[in-house]
Design brief:
The chain is 84% helix and 0% strand. By secondary structure, the chain is an all-alpha fold. It has a single domain, classed as MFS general substrate transporter like domains (Growth Hormone, Chain: A, Up-down Bundle). The two termini are 32 Å apart.
Length: 414
């Protein structure tokens, strides 16, 4: 009976990745960059629209950076991480749905909705990540973390496949054109996210403790935050890991968020770009599970090194890319390692932090990740604008993987 309960909680937790990955796939990586460039910001040249999109991602990152640690600390004090997850997820769901009503040329409104939805997505992930210690013990954490990301690839891929079919043959779905299909895709993401978040809210349990009330929780949260900042400075492994993560996840997220925009900018056809992303999703599902097992054999850190090498090669190859088949090949390469990089980072960090302060420590974890995505999109956008060539922006990301690997090597694992 205990195993069944644990299994139900594990799957309910993993299903949230299935739920919110629809936003990451259909909105962030897939249709938003294309629709933004072709519909909402069509009057701007390619470099300027890339700059607008990069700034939008950066603004969302800046706002969540400042909020993440204190929100995590308050959630620890109130012992109700699920409530905070629900609030942020609800904001992301509503604002994603609002994209349906954004008119042509209204790029600023589109960016505002996108930023708000991205903040909801990233904010909810702070509390989702921190719940992993309640659904998996230390021995199973690599695999359970990998299961979450794998379910995300599969869930995001299933809905994305449906959304792609809608855009390729709108009439079959009763839609008048591809633009209407894309707008309805944003609505489908909001509904998908809402429905599949329910199992986590119903079945994942947190330890029941008496919390001090909202006002006291905020005050104690600030106090705990300041104390944890000192602790992180004294916990060498945690500090070095966060520093490493800050650099390398910058590269990972920048490649994911800006890949379609990059492909459009070097004149690849949007249908090829979307299909390549779809391929990457379904490659990512089994690859992430396999990565979890691989980490058990070669070690979590070595698994991360493998991903860093692969991403570096992807960025270098992108510099020389001219044909669609190359984009497909790079999409497969990213699909093989992206989920593994993300899941192993989460499980490795969970093994380094104190269990009683997971919300706050994961607030710092998400803060580092999201502050990194301030630099990456801006770096790519500025270099593309300054040089007039998006290829230089993409290849510059390699330095982030090198520096991240350097600091990761200094982290001592058990």
């Amino acid at each position: 009976m205990r195993w069944i309960k644990q299994s139900r909680q594990t799957w309910a937790w993993a299903l949230y990745d299935w739920a919110n990955s629809a936003f990451a796939t259909t909105v962030m990586a897939g249709f938003f960059p294309i629709f933004f460039k072709k519909f909402w910001d069509s009057s701007a040249d390619a470099a300027t629209s890339t700059f607008h999109l990069g700034v939008g991602n950066a603004v969302a990152g800046i706002l969540i950076v400042f909020a993440a640690p204190i929100l995590g600390a308050i959630a620890d004090q109130m012992c109700n991480r699920k409530r905070f997850l629900l609030l942020f997820a609800a904001a992301g769901i509503v604002l994603t749905g609002l994209l349906f009503w954004v008119g042509q040329g209204q790029w600023a409104f589109a960016i505002a909705c996108y930023c708000g939805a991205t903040i909801g997505f990233m904010g909810a992930n702070i509390f989702y990540d921190s719940l992993i210690i309640f659904v998996a013990d230390a021995e199973r954490r690599d695999l359970v973390s990998a299961l979450g990301y794998a379910m995300g690839y599969l869930g995001g891929g299933v809905l994305f496949a449906l959304n792609v079919a809608m855009t390729l043959d709108p009439a079959a779905f009763g839609l008048k054109d591809a633009s209407e299909a894309v707008r309805f895709s944003f609505l489908s993401v909001a509904l998908w996210w809402a429905v599949f978040a329910l199992p986590l809210l119903l079945w994942v349990k947190e330890p029941k403790t008496v919390h001090p009330g909202a006002a006291n929780a905020i005050r104690q949260g600030w106090s705990q935050l300041l104390g944890t900042m000192k602790q992180i400075g004294q916990r060498r492994n945690v500090f070095l890991f966060l520093l490493a993560y800050w650099f390398y996840i910058d590269g990972v997220d920048t490649v994911v968020r800006m890949a379609v925009d990059f492909g459009l900018s070097i004149n690849l056809h949007q249908n090829d770009l979307i299909k390549a992303l779809l391929v990457a999703q379904f490659v990512g599902f089994p690859a992430t599970i396999a990565y979890g097992y691989l980490a058990m054999q070669i070690g979590t850190k070595n698994g991360l090194y493998l991903g860093l090498v692969c991403y570096s090669l992807v960025c270098v190859w992108a510099f020389f890319m001219t044909q669609a088949w190359e984009f497909y090949t790079l999409a497969v390469a990213v699909g093989l390692v992206q989920g593994g990089m993300q899941s192993l980072s989460r499980s490795m960090y969970a093994s380094l932090i104190p269990p009683s302060q997971v919300g706050e420590y994961f607030g710092f974890y998400n803060m580092m990740g999201k502050s990194a995505t301030i630099i990456g999109p801006l770096l790519l956008g500025f270099i593309s604008l300054a040089s007039g060539d998006h290829r230089w922006g993409m290849v510059s990301i390699v330095i982030l993987f090198i520096v991240g690997g350097y600091f990761l090597a200094k982290v001592q694992t058990r």
